[in-house]
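Worked example 3 (structure in, sequence out).
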């Protein structure tokens, strides 16, 4: 039976090898991009595993830079990326710290993050989907298997899916047949403001699963404060284990 680290080392090798083969099938000006990390943070029974749809990329049009920055490296543990990004002023990462961690970035030292749709970065979800569709059918299936989430190997105490597409897709893949949980609506509605759901909770394989509206979208103070209170209770649950 593999240890968590052995599982991750092998997976990294498979990703590197897949990337090299995949780019032989893609146009020279549209290669898959991989920054060398498919998961960061504490990977053995983390307090929280954060899951996004796929890594973003801001300088997508700089093809030469994309190629130069693609990394084929052996797996090595590294700190949860939100720690570094929040220090650099990244708005999204700062929201993870402020809302989920109650402003305490040190909590992320015992958390991990990964992606659900693809480990390959792109400016939007649709871009990487289009790239994968250009690959042979057998490689499309291989990519789907490659990104399959290893719940048992990572064994997180809690899972947080960031964004409804991530949450709904996770539910469809790993909680088949379960009733969709009710999603919370804004506490206060002003004027003609559109009502937006912002939080849901259920479980998968006995692990609490949280869904949140993507932190890069507009969120009211009422939503943010309510989620802060919710995750404060989550940390109490974690500490009591």
């Amino acid at each position: 039976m593999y240890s968590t680290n052995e599982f991750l080392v092998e997976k990294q090798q498979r990703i590197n090898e897949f990337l090299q083969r995949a780019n032989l099938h893609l146009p020279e000006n549209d290669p898959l991009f991989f920054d060398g990390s498919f998961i960061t943070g504490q990977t053995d029974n983390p307090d929280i595993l954060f899951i996004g749809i796929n890594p973003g990329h801001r300088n997508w049009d700089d093809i030469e830079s994309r190629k130069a920055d693609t990394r084929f490296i052996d797996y090595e543990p590294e700190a949860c990326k939100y720690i570094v990004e929040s220090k650099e002023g990244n708005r999204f990462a700062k929201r993870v710290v402020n809302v989920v961690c109650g402003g305490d970035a040190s909590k992320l030292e015992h958390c991990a993050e990964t992606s659900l749709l693809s480990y390959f970065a792109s400016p939007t979800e649709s871009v990487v989907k289009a790239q994968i569709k250009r690959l042979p059918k057998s490689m499309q299936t291989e990519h789907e298997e490659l990104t399959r989430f290893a719940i048992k190997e990572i064994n997180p105490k809690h899972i947080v899916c960031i964004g409804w597409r991530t949450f709904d897709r996770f539910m469809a893949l790993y909680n088949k047949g379960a009733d969709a949980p009710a999603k919370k609506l804004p506490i206060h509605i002003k004027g003609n403001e559109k009502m937006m759901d912002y939080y849901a909770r259920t479980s998968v394989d006995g692990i609490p699963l949280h869904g949140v509206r993507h932190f890069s979208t507009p969120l009211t103070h009422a939503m943010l404060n309510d989620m802060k209170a919710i995750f404060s209770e989550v940390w109490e649950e974690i500490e009591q284990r």
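Notes: The first helix runs from residue 4 to 22. The mean pLDDT is 92.
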